[in-house]
Amino acid sequence: MDNNKVSFIIAVNDEMLYKKCEAYINNLIVPEGFKTEVIPIRNAEYITKAYNTCMNSSDSKYKVYLHQDVFIINRNFIDDLLKVFKLVSIGVMGVCGAKIIPENGIWWESSELVGEVYESHTGKMGLLKFKEVESEFREVQAVDGLIIVTQYDIPWRDDIFKNWHFYDLSQCMEFKKLGYKVVVPKQNTPWCVHDCGIVNTENGFNESRLLFVKNYLAFYMKVENKDGDNVDENSLIDIYVISHKPYKVVESEIFTSIYTKREIVPNDYNILCSDEGDNISSENPLYAEFTTYYWVWKNRKIPKYVGFFQYRRYISFKDNVVGCNNFSEAVNKYGWNKMELENLLKDYDVVLPTSLNFRMFGLGNMWSQYNMWHKSSYLITALQIIKEKYPSYEIDCYAALLSTEVYYINLFIMRGDLFDSYMTWIMDIFEEIKKRLNPEYIVKDFAYLGERLFNIFLINQQRTNNIKIKINQPVYLRENALGITDFWIGDETHIPEASE
Fold first, then answer.
1. What is the pTM (predicted TM-score) of this model?
2. 2-227 domain in CATH 3.90.550.10?
């Protein structure tokens, strides 16, 4: 990848328009040390396929996808885009876009439009000016495809959009799924002229619109709820259900599936995967579920509460429940709905499953059990780091490690601000351990260590911030000999291993 190169990628079916477009590109000021290339695409079957072909053939870090009838009149365009892309979290830039996408998917019918461009969609050239961008840029949900600039290569969805509409909104959604921002920059004067003429919406427009809504509605409405200025984030709760393999989903509006690898669900981009965006998935053998915690922490906006379950391990939202083997009844039986969840969290900061009692197994306390089953050097080093960097936690280490009970298996729901504090604290400890030791990447050592550190963190927060913890019964899913999924209730004497 050439970090000092900008490619201009243009679909061409009118040579006169293309020559004019190219002339404006050739007139741009190229910053010292940078180079440009213009890549015309002729006889394209459809736009997404053409863009993928050019994207894969170009080594430029920065790619400008534009229509042949777009003329870049801002001669400092390259320097301006480089300033925007200094922020690595920005994936896409355009000159016009929508802060909110309507349910029908038509971006220009949004209640909040941003940006400006000279254009001729009415048949007459004029300034199309929406809400002004007051700061360096404004984050939006999507930008118009007249010009789309990227600094990362994410495949265009040529498996879905096989004509010339909604490819732009789709690409913005793909970037946002990976945690990247889509923005419209501040333009003191419009950067582009779009001589499009009266827009033809008869050549597959509605077909593409329906495909966009079908494939992205749930995602972009959820993103809107997270990003929207008029939304009370205090009412929002995200619970992620982690899996490393395909599984039968417990279907509930409150659960969001997330897989550890895209290759598990290669054809369903509505499902989140923690090996995309800012990720540590290559270290999954060491971190296990912490790779997903990290991905959510780095790539998703954290609402008031966030939680993590596993594909066969959940927490009941109701008290005093018993097992069952009827999948269709499970959601109601265990209260896995928004109302029960909100009631559960009303007076609590953290929800955890029943603790495991080591004493009942003759394993002593948390310290002795860890040293018996795991690598003591990891825990000893972690305690040294805590003493050096987080001395206020030292007293909590003793309280946790001498306890005969442990909150196990990394299941929890907690306040979003607590989650941020927890991840900042524990990831710093993990990074320090990697500097001091030579971890083996073949076992889940950090996941096992993380269970113990989690208990230390909770005790510290109880002592210093008086957090309130609710304990509810864990629910485990397991197929019986007849291939039927059993839901059974864990207690302080047993928690299933990963192989079960």
1. 0.61
2. yes
